[in-house]
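Appendix B. Chain record.
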Amino acid sequence: MTVLIGDSASEPILSAVRAEVAKTNGPILVILDSDHSEPHVTKELHNYASFVTSGSYCLVQDGVIDTLEIFSSARPGPLVSIEKYLAHDKRFEIDTTKTNRFLITHHPKGWLRRL
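Structure tokens predicted for this chain:
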């Protein structure tokens, strides 16, 4: 197991992740769960979505920040990033079978399936 400590959107971390991705030939799932601000999640989506293999997922965590009043001071958050990203990148779609599976979720629209 490799543990990287640092800003997930920084070049040193991205370089290390690229090196790990290059070593694998299996499916790759990406989970984004760090700084939940819209600008940071947008950077992560642009940098990490390309690692996701066809049929796999990019799970963007905690879009609930943009839906519950208790988190209003932390907005805009991940949900805004997801919607903006999907408007421009047609390689992904929201997997509603996963996002709508539970009555309550922390990840609305967060399960992005690579086509």
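Further analysis of this model is presented in Appendix C.
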